[in-house]
Design brief:
globular; mainly alpha
Length: 120
């Protein structure tokens, strides 16, 4: 009986140990598609920013979304034409996206892209 209890206790301890080694939920959020290997030095619209804006902004700023009266996301030209506004509300004041903020990495890469002159 004691041996069975010991084995059961050992099994529970091992399971708890494995759970403690699981991925930390406070760690960095996954990149938007196309974000692998992107750095502040090589960030472009094509390798990161376009996907970021598509995933974080298009739900409100396309079609009949509530944000289309302020800005309509329709690709690089719409972004580059509104770069100062996007920088202000996303990077500086951080009031967009409305449904949640960007990760530190996303903000850093977006800021670096803007500072580089928004390369396509």
């Amino acid at each position: 009986m004691k041996q069975q209890l010991w084995k059961t206790s050992w099994l529970w301890l091992m399971m708890l140990g494995l759970l403690g080694c699981s991925k930390d939920s406070d760690g960095p959020a996954p990149d938007p598609p196309g974000g692998d290997g992107v750095t502040a030095e090589n960030v472009t619209y094509g390798n990161f920013v376009g996907s970021l804006l598509q995933s974080k902004c298009s739900s409100c700023h396309t079609g009949n979304g509530e944000g289309t009266s302020l800005w309509t996301f329709s690709g690089y030209n719409s972004v580059s034409a509104n770069l100062a506004r996007i920088n202000d509300v996303v990077v500086v004041r951080r009031i967009m996206p409305k449904n949640g903020s960007l990760t530190t990495r996303e903000l850093d890469l977006l800021k670096a892209w803007i500072e580089k002159g928004a390369p396509q």
